[in-house]
Design a protein that fits this description.
Blueprint lengths: L1 E4 L5 E8 L13 H8 L9 H11 L2 E6 L4 E8 L3 H13 L6 H16 L2 H13 L13 H6 L2 H11 L5 E7 L3 H12 L21 E5 L5 E8 L8 H11 L6 H8 L6 E8 L4 E9 L1 H20 L4 H18 L3 H14 L6 H9 L3 H11 L6 E6 L2 H11 L1 H6 L1
Parallel strand pairs: 1-5, 6-10
Antiparallel strand pairs: 2-4, 2-5, 3-4, 7-9, 7-10, 8-9
Helix pairs in contact: 3-8, 9-12, 9-15, 10-11, 11-15, 11-16, 12-14
């Protein structure tokens, strides 16, 4: 349990974090974590689905949930006077789901899967993860597969819930107008006597594969291209340097990729980078969406900028700007009780180092141009990255991929 009292606010952001996500599933369970997240909202013995919605509407609050590869979270934000009621309902949803309307919600999730399949801007990231982590849980979509969702039964769902939604595997986090003693009392009241399980669930170690080219032909207006490869794990000492690099390369309005591809050449509307860390590995990624006429030139610019990160030292002014951007975004985001609750809850659940703002700022300030260049050479060399693409012509994809990594095309 973790709480953080924030003076001057009247709201409380509460999250119940469960140590289960798509990474904990085998192939025959793909998507069950996300499916259960949906089913939590369909009612308990005490509250129907409509009553859950009515409670939070009546409180003037909000409730939502999310599933990732290593966690599930149900979270709410309410006025501090309503925390007891909100905690009661959320805890009952987690502890005692009735798994009602199973077939109806099954259809909802199947429609959600089809929605992602129809959105190449989302789908290309799933193709990239599959390319980087082939035949592994980390490479499968969090949302799951139609085959599993359409066939998995109530008994299997109940067994999966019973095995993971247990006391050692749940973290309570709250930020805002709340103190530790109050949160502890409410936790004992609403989660006391929670079923105790082992809480230990082995996951398959992430093993990034060799770079590959993966393409899917679809009649889209744009080509959607992603590059990706091995990244750093979430506890890696250089993660703050990676954040600086990401800001410089594609994570801000003044980043190199956005300025070169969008602002100076008008080759794309959407272009950017990201980096995600897991317990034992990570993934870096670049995304670009553009029409066929611009595809090859945009790929050439992208490859050049990626190589530059490992070949040249970042100028001092650019490094300083990236650091100030990160520090500003950090401080502004932490003015929100919800952001602070998510940061704290996930850190405790995943046993990740939790630093205060001053410590994070110090680590950002300590990043050097040499640090950034070393990371660029290690993680962002395009010859080490896989390419995933969606578009109407496989030949056009291969032409672009040749600019990104000629050896990759030859191997394909």
């Amino acid at each position: 349990m973790i709480s953080e009292s924030l003076p001057g606010v009247r709201s409380v952001a509460l999250g119940l974090w469960i140590g289960v996500g798509s990474r904990f599933e085998n192939a025959g369970e793909a998507g069950v974590s996300h499916f259960i997240e949906h089913l939590l909202f369909k009612g308990t013995e005490r509250f129907s689905a409509a009553e859950i919605a009515q409670v939070f509407d009546g409180l003037g609050g909000e409730i939502n949930a999310a599933t990732g590869r290593d966690h599930t979270v149900v979270y709410t934000r309410v006025l501090d006077d309503h925390l007891d009621v909100a905690f009661d309902v959320v805890a009952d949803m987690l502890r005692n789901p009735a798994f009602l309307e199973l077939d109806q919600e099954r259809q909802v999730v199947l429609e959600e899967i089809l929605m992602y399949e129809d959105d190449p801007g989302d789908l290309v990231h799933d193709l990239m993860s599959e390319a980087v982590f082939p035949d592994q849980p980390l490479g499968r979509p969090v949302i799951g597969t139609s085959e599993v969702i359409s066939s998995i039964g109530a008994d299997e769902i109940r067994a999966y819930h019973a095995g993971h939604y247990v006391a050692p595997n749940i973290v309570v986090a709250a930020s805002g107008s709340v103190d530790y003693d109050r949160l502890m009392a409410l936790t004992e009241k609403h989660l006391g006597g929670l079923q105790v399980g082992s809480g230990a669930h082995a996951v398959e170690p992430g093993a990034p594969g060799a770079p590959v080219l993966v393409s899917r032909t679809k009649p889209t207006e744009q080509y959607h291209v992603a590059l990706g490869g091995k990244g750093r794990d979430r506890s890696e000492s250089r993660r703050h340097a990676m954040a600086v690099l990401d800001t410089i390369l594609g994570g801000s309005m003044s980043s190199r990729l956005l300025q070169e591809i969008r602002e100076r050449r008008g080759l794309a509307y959407s272009v950017g980078t990201y980096s995600v860390g897991y317990a034992d590995t990570g993934q870096v990624g670049v995304y670009l969406g553009t029409r066929e006429d611009n595809l090859v030139e945009a790929a050439e610019v992208m490859a050049r900028e990626l190589r530059r990160m490992g070949e040249e030292l970042v100028p001092a002014a650019e490094l300083t700007r990236a650091k100030e951007h990160l520090k500003g975004r950090l401080v502004l985001s932490l003015e929100s009780p919800s952001t602070r609750m998510h940061r704290n809850g996930r850190a405790v659940l995943t046993e990740t180092e939790l630093l205060d703002i001053e410590e994070i700022v110090e680590r950002i300030e300590a990043v050097t141009a040499d640090d950034v260049q070393a990371l660029g050479s290690e993680f962002w060399d395009p010859s080490r990255l896989s390419v995933a693409a969606i578009g109407p012509s496989e030949d056009a994809v291969r032409s672009a991929a040749e600019r990104l990594s000629p050896n990759l095309v030859e191997a394909a």
